[in-house]
């Protein structure tokens, strides 16, 4: 059997793509230029929504036809050619917003350019000369334009590279400057930051690793060997971040793109790096995970949500057409049926071969996967989509202390799940964005250890648009410093937390200022002796009836409870917590054991005595706590 783990073959993928594409036609305008899926308009308005609906389904159509070497029984190229002609015609009632009218058109232009390249013999070469001229005119404002210094740089590079290939206007200096900027995003072990901040999420795979490969093909160049090495190294981490049920890690913005998370695995296959059977296992697992859980829905539509509809998952830039960036996860269909990625036998994911622990250095993650329940967990001590010392409220998708393939962070309210918070006099929980990241490492026993510290702050997000990360300008009030050390083994984490004593806090801040050369640390004039409050440790937000979630508080953490909230995974999500009954004692280490999933040894928690942990499997570790 070629697919012993997922049961999915290329035929399953093709059927899914065809279903999505045929369903989209029911929401198209008469000339097909606009595909307006049902639902309230997104933050950029219905014109942009409809452009997204065209451009993003166009990606799926392009992959489908390219992988069949032009065979097109659904008439996809003819259908999209008609829409393309109307969209770029300035006199058409269905015309698209231009790149110099709305920035989001710059994003969609890259998808249009990419598909025109991939399907050139069956679409571009057959277009009337006037339509080709109007396509060039619509794309041309990319030249010399300003693009945000994040993954968007690739949209300009790809668009201008296509223009260059068809004799249109382009600026070589734009492409070279964009490539140079993209190199500044490079981080350890093949990872990228999406800009200058600690911005680590799925954009690593579905943008920052994907576009360099496709651009090199468009430019007629062999991929840079250094890029291929980075891609291969990144994929070695990425396969460890997929759960046995196919769920990708639930972390970071734009999660409504869903199975776009499969894109980097197809990029590896297309580039010839990584094991084809393992890459297809990861990609098929991700897509099947959603296809079997309501995405697409009964009508073949990808709604704003995760499994089913959940409007709260959307950012302000998300509209009804936005979820179709999931088409990037269908990139494998651009590879022919005889490609090794389709003919190799599936190999098991790391979480299916046994328990593992893994340090992922760039985002500061301690990763633990357990075979018994198929869950992958991350203890986060390096990612908050901000800089060290930033005075911001937390973004739930970035600043939590833990993420997994089986839990969804609470998307509103002050931190509760996967948090260590100081409660103020009104019971409000503090935030941790701007923390100083400590080292992440593995002990000889395999137990992982990481740490971070921050100035606790109470307050709100700023007033700007919600793009999934923290917004500046909110009203914030400083509190005491908080320091946390995580020790991770199997399904358990032992979390050490303290409010450093006044002298320790000042020394800690001084150490940060001298060691963090890329950003300022906490304000040296900030008071280290702000009065503390109760200390609360929140556990995993697990769906009721799903994996077990538990917090076992140690000495001093005698108050406990379980909060109930709603998430895209379940209407009833359980969040256990423990807390001190009164203000936390400065300088004292408090400990709690946090469980998600199968804990082993009858569910008994680790035993902690001072800095020594005895784990349920019998291993013993002495944890290197800060002095």
Automatic annotation (TrEMBL):
Residues 9-349 form the DUF2264 domain. Residues 456-478, 502-545 are annotated as: Disordered. It comes from the Bacteria. Residues 519-533 have a biased composition (Basic and acidic residues). Residues 507-518 have a biased composition (Low complexity). This is DUF2264 domain-containing protein. It comes from Nonomuraea bangladeshensis.
